[in-house]
Amino acid sequence: MSTWIKRSAEADWDYQTDLTNDTARRISEQVSIDYANFREKVWKLIQTVDYKSFKSDELKRQLEKLNVIGVAALPEDKLTDYTKIYTEMTEIYSTAKICPYQNQSAI
Length: 107
Fold this sequence. Notes:
The chain is mostly helical. The chain has one domain (2-89). It has helices at 2-16, 22-46, 57-66, 76-94. Helix 1 packs antiparallel against helix 2 (22-46) and helix 2 crosses helix 4 (76-94). The radius of gyration is 19 Å and the shape is elongated. 7% of the residues are buried.
């Protein structure tokens, strides 16, 4: 799991620090989709385990968190659309221009 989180963070960082880099954007989107597919596999595996009967509260808590699937529950085409829209919204938000406080009509 930590390998996926590291891979996702690195791809996201590469894209976020250079929003004009289309290659970094595509890689970031693909890593997000791959991670969601991995999360779905983990979720399916957790469904086969009765983790609520475990004695370790820490392990139960971790498995409960992993049991929340999130966007990984989306079908592949919807997941791809979601990822692209999320990336586009991030780019728009990150490149927004703000007027200086002293000159509200600057833009």
